[in-house]
Amino acid sequence: MAFHLAHGSVVHRATTLHGYSAIVMVERYVGGRWELAAELPHDAEEITDDVAREKLGEAADEPSRFAVPPETDVPGGLKARLDQLDSMIDATVAWLRAGAAGSDTELAWARYQSSDYDYELDTREALRDAAGLLSQMVKHRATLAARAEMRRRKRDSEDD
Fold first, then answer.
1. Taking the CB of residue 129, how many other CB atoms lie within 10 A of it?
2. Helix then strand then coil, % of the chain, to nearest 5
3. Residue 6's closest CA among 32, 45, 64, 37?
4. pTM above 0.85, yes or no
5. How far apart are CA 64 and CA 30, in angstroms?
6. What is the predicted pLDDT for the residue at 76?
7. Cβ-count burial of 3 within 10 angstroms (0-12 exposed, 13-18 middle, 19+ buried)?
8. Where does residue 34 rank: exposed (0-12), middle (13-18), buried (19+ CB within 10 A)?
């Protein structure tokens, strides 16, 4: 875990995801709690653990949710991964459907270059990005399902 200071006052931490070291998650400390951040701000400078403790107190020593293994009651294995991905796909589809409802009407209603107009443009961008993510999840789901089936068949043939 590495701490960073951005904008002179906001402390961020970058943590390697437990179980997959190629992924680094970023959180920032705001309002008395750690919250997920999209990325480190460009002006962020790395700070020592001691400097982070001076700024945050005990919060600097709170473990990141990304650095610890998931709860023990979380199912694992290929079937569980597919089920979890299905759940994420379903939740994303529901969010897209709810978020898109009335979007064209709202954009037409909003005055050009107003905060309402900007909000609707940002909403549309979020919806497009989520649709792209959904497409990727569906592709990965199909790949994982095919690989799981190949593994199952291989195990079955080895058992014979």
1. 10
2. 55, 20, 25
3. 45
4. no
5. 14
6. 67
7. buried
8. buried
